[in-house]
Design goal:
By secondary structure, this protein is α/β, with parallel strands linked by helices. It is built from five helices and five strands; from the N terminus they run βαβαββααβα. β1, α1 and β2 form a beta-alpha-beta unit.
Length: 164
């Protein structure tokens, strides 16, 4: 689907932008999700979400859930990483990618385990993390994160194209 509006995917796919647009780089997830929705027709952009618990109702019954969030893993600011929670080992330093925590202390990987336990999980979950730097109050992404948004959105669009 390389950058063009494609046909409605046959599978049910949801793209979730986690984060708070009023906390600078934390708005990366919603920015990517909105861009993906503009690139790929038929994709549901859900967000912004601030709490991973909100994923439970949004991704139920989906074939693919892509969760995009700003992270702090120690990588260079603007680095984009994809982790398939079903197939990729999650190294301890990268736990921030799959275990993005809320104020409730639970992350995406934990919510996925809960969803599986209650029979409410998507078939596949991919977390897309963008390394952030500035999580202070205010709007607008830092330059490196803003520059990473189109790249991350294209990677998500490619995932959707492969799934469809």
């Amino acid at each position: 689907m390389s950058g063009t509006r494609g046909a409605v995917p046959r599978q049910r796919i949801v793209v979730v932008g986690m984060g708070n647009v009023y906390r600078r780089d934390d708005g990366a997830g919603p920015a990517v999700a909105a861009r993906v929705a503009a690139l790929v027709g038929g994709v549901s952009d859900r967000g912004p979400l601030a709490d991973p618990f909100d994923l439970l109702g949004l991704w139920a019954g989906t074939d693919l859930a892509v969760v995009v969030d700003a992270v702090r893993s120690g990588a260079e600011v603007g680095t984009v990483r994809l982790i398939d929670l079903d197939t990729d080992p999650v190294p301890v330093p990268a736990r921030a990618l799959a275990g993005t925590t809320s104020t409730h202390g639970i992350g995406v990987a934990d919510i996925l385990r809960l969803a599986r336990a209650v029979g409410n999980a998507p078939k596949r979950v991919v977390v897309v993390g963008i390394e952030g730097n500035d999580f202070g109050q205010g709007t607008g992404l830092s330059p490196a994160v803003r520059h990473a948004v189109p790249h991350a959105a294209q990677q998500v669009a490619d995932l959707i194209g492969e799934a469809g």
